[in-house]
Write a structure and sequence with these properties.
Length: 440
Amino acid sequence: MTATNPPDNQTLIDKRQQHFLPTAVLYHNEPLQLVKAQGEYVWDSDGRRYLDAIGGIVCISAGHNHPRIKQTLIDMLERDEIQHTSTLYLTRYPVELAETLLQEAPEGLDRAAFTNSGSEANELAFMAARQATGETMVLNLRHGYHGGTSGALSQCGHHNWRFRAQPTASAVSALEPYCYRCPFNQKPDSCNFECAQNVETTIQTATHGKIAAMIVEPVMGVGGFIAPPEEYFTEVTRIVHEYGGKYISDEVQSGAGRCSHDFLLSKALNIDADIITMAKGFGNGAAIGGLLMRSDIADTLGGKLYFNTFACDPYQTAQAKVTIDIINEEKLADNAMAMGQRLIDGLRGLTARHELIGDVRGRGLLMGIELVKDRKTKAYATAETTRLMDICKDLGVLLGKGGLFGNVIRLAPPLTVTAAQIDTIIETVDNAFHQLAKEA
């Protein structure tokens, strides 16, 4: 079993079913075995090329196997640089990454820390907020998702990610800022940001009146790329601070230049965050997460020990640092905004032709298409979403999906995507809708 002679797909499927947990799901009716990647494309074991319009599940920011990233890692290997040091020994790479990341931070956030994933970054954020405030309660949003570890799953707004054995500790959910399915039945012209006001109501009725923190994604990723208006964050951060809490902005999916001209969407939207967490595109696929916080919060952790075995290892931190450099030097955030506008314009242009499209939304290159069986009832078109993904795969474009009921197509191509590739995505989705209609 080698990279040049991979096993057949059914062998891998059988072995996964035998050895993996039953929670290990696969995309597509006929799952792909991906063996190669370059730029915006990936290849399967049969040599077929696909345009990766989900960016390695929102992880690839600078493109697959960017030459500078490859060369950085090759050079380190050829110098026999140490691969593992932990936080107990000095190495230059996490320090260089911290200095580079802090240049992208909003004013006032002057401390950095690194983890192995976004889940761990959020766990550390919860711990820091609780230590700083002396409180335990953390607010979240329905339809939100913040990772697969115990504390992060406690803040999860999706029943299908939770388990009967999963404790929900010191967590309470506020109503979601989901404009397409407004929980208050409001329209844009009648909205008074009742969803933001509900945060205060939730604190007043479901806590003892003080909180440790609230965690919110600027674009709700697993929830289906729900993108609240900027004014929402102004009101919610005010409420959180009024009740003594720290505001945690979860940028695991929306960061790394994907959703704004700035590296972090929180900075572009002027979100008054106390802590910002990140992962995925932050390391261009490397197993690394990170967070930024204010010194007054970080200082409350003094006198205790926090240890992460792999958090400051050289190769991951070096890759993340080079990724930030590439995003800045190649102006990939600017490209993401231009290509995101081209994508949303093209997708919204399809709504007149395809009744299954209920909503098109997002920011930058985080774009969602919500599929509904009927535009009046907004009934979830879950099976149709799965079938559309399979058709697009057969046409050479890979998509993702999300939403509480799996009825939202998610598009998040690498930030290096070109206008011609965006047009290919739009054309492919259009053709897939036409084929789906013929099958109905």
